[in-house]
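Working notes for the structural subgroup meeting. M.R. asked for a predicted model of this chain before we commit to crystallization trials. I am recording the input and output together here so anyone reviewing the notebook later can reproduce the run.

Input as submitted:
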Amino acid sequence: MNGIYYYLIAFIVIWILAFGLKNKLTNHGFEIQFPLIMWRTEKFKNFIKRMANLSPKFWKWFMNIGIVISYIAMIYITWTLVSSLSSMLETPSVSLVIPGVEMPGSSIYVPLGYGLIALATVLIVHEFSHGILAIVEKINVKSVGLMLFAILPGAFMEPDEEEMKEAKKSSKLRIYAAGSMANITLAVMALLIVSAVGSYVIPSTFEEDGIEVDRLVGDSPASKVLKEGMIIESIDNHKVHDSNSYVNAVNNLKPGQNITIGTNEGDYSIILDKNPNNESKGYMGIQAAKHYELNDGVASIYGDTLPWIWFGVLELFQWICILNLGIGLFNLLPLKPLDGGHMFETLLSYKLPKYFYKPIVNSLSLILGMIIIFSIVYGFL
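Returned structure, recorded in token form:
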């Protein structure tokens, strides 16, 4: 079932319940006004205050480093976006990513369950970190909570706008940098967990035994003949026994080529399409994964089922790492209303008058915004 139908079902159920229980929900801090549901709660606000008061000096010190890292990341992500212009018609540099939905122009498919959990960590960590630094900088936080825009989840933190305007520039920078720095920090922590599980736990628990079809891209050549879970044994008489042999076998495939894929369930012929990310490469539409067998010694102690949970842990933290890093970096683009746009504007305000830096920020925001919109739209064509 396509992930978009899950969103549609959830949209209908949530909004029927929201309007049906509106009076009761309003008494518990909910604000319902289609297409937006907001839940303000003192518990989140008190939690942020406790976190901020644990060590205000640490938060300021950490975010001073975060400001430097954020500006370096801003330069990197801006250069990456601009330098991708030459290849944008072949490989769009920006695409929408929605968990459970195959998006045109995107080479990344985010699983529904893992993706939603990872996205929740992105939003909550990001907004709560803004709130923690606002309190550290003596700026009143009016409300904190969770929100739902149509069917898309989110979190929010509302600082006192007048106090933000009057705050020192250094305080503003620490608050603006806090969200992305929290995302990047969480991405690094998730990466360490992924490395530990992937490098130590799984090799000591399982043995690699070939390559399997983990997922088939909808309406791709392979989706018409193969099934998920099949073990790939050969590609055009090239034996496939591990990830290296699989990469070597598919590296030189060309569009229009008729290939034979040998599996544990028989041989299948496929005519390759053009790869959407590189039209000179052949495209099967297979998301492959290593196939593992459980070590006998481990099975005798923990059984045949429990150890497989490590692959769920590995995939979950992979997506927590990928989404936190990707969204955290994207948010540092010098494009308003993103945090990077506010940081860029604050930086220019140290030396330039408002009538001079405002047009610079607005022009750059317009240019980068057009590149992003063009890349997303072109991916759908």
